[in-house]
Amino acid sequence: MPRTVLKRLAAVLLCGLVVLPGGAAPAAAASRIKDLASIEGVRENQLVGYGLVVGLNGTGDSLNNAPFTRQSLQAMLERLGMNTRGANLRTANVAAVMVTANLQPFATQGSRIDVNVSALGDAKSLQGGTLLVTPLLGADGEVYAIAQGPLAVSGFVAKGDGASVTRGVPTTARIASGAIVEREIEFKLATMNSVRLSLRNPDFTTARRIAQAVNDLLGQPVAEPTDPSNVRITLPQKFNGNIVDLITDIEQLAVQPDLPAKVVVDEASGIIVMGQDVRVSTVAIAQGNLTVTVTEDAQVSQPNPFSQGQTVVTPRTQVTVNTDDKRRLGIVRESVSLRELVDGLNALGVGPRDLISILHAIKAAGALQAEIEVI
Known about the structure:
alpha+beta; 3 domains; 6-stranded antiparallel β-barrel; 4-stranded antiparallel beta sheet; 35% strand
């Protein structure tokens, strides 16, 4: 074998010996741009409408307590050629409802969308009901869809003379593909010369990384972060004015998002969520509870026989104070990872409620390098 070939083989083996012990660097957790940001103008629009549900088995609105249901029923019958003004309507098979839906982006006339139906009056259940024709309005007051159809109710209510059982919420329902789109929202995406990406979690570093990933893909500086929430991308000439092709190419790019260190605390439920970048300096913590117990015992004091005294009730009060002296200082050492921080806090042996107070105290001492957000 020639000497040159031997030298090359030895170099390859040497490189392999150097690389293999260390192992490959773990890949960072990255997300697609499609999951990190939304496209300007590509959005849903909320619709709302007021309608009537009929066909209920006596579980509808009581017309005496729901005058709007009575008025709506009379107006509907008048449109159908029946005059019920002054009549004593006593039906319990009708319920007034609010109908809501989300109009998908680029929905065309004739396409169908799902709708949600919620009782407005004192109806007991919408089980078995049918929604009558209900116009769905946008924020501008225009009608964009018409809803109608039988309701699908997940909850139910059953009751007798002495007991009742309710499962779920029987006064809400859903109609799959229950509305037909009648008006389209004008938005010409194909004619745009630039597009703006809106980050779902605004961050300077993430916006810059997205712009760099797009520029590396296209080979030219067409993407620019304008602020922590937006990245503007200019349509390159090689796409021949087709903005859809540009969006298709860039939304699959993987970018590692960068988020600030944050601790989210829900005071109502005691839930604590920590981000992976939360760090804490070495601190000593002593946690103890001061418990004061007051016990009242009523004792009867009776006079001696023939003493002509009166029987009286004498209260006996006993107060017990427990300072939990067995608790000692615990050390939470400086953490370099979220797991070490959690292990250090768990070593204190406290519950979520006490842990919330401890985190606030650590933050006040300047030892918690994170933001605490209370929701």
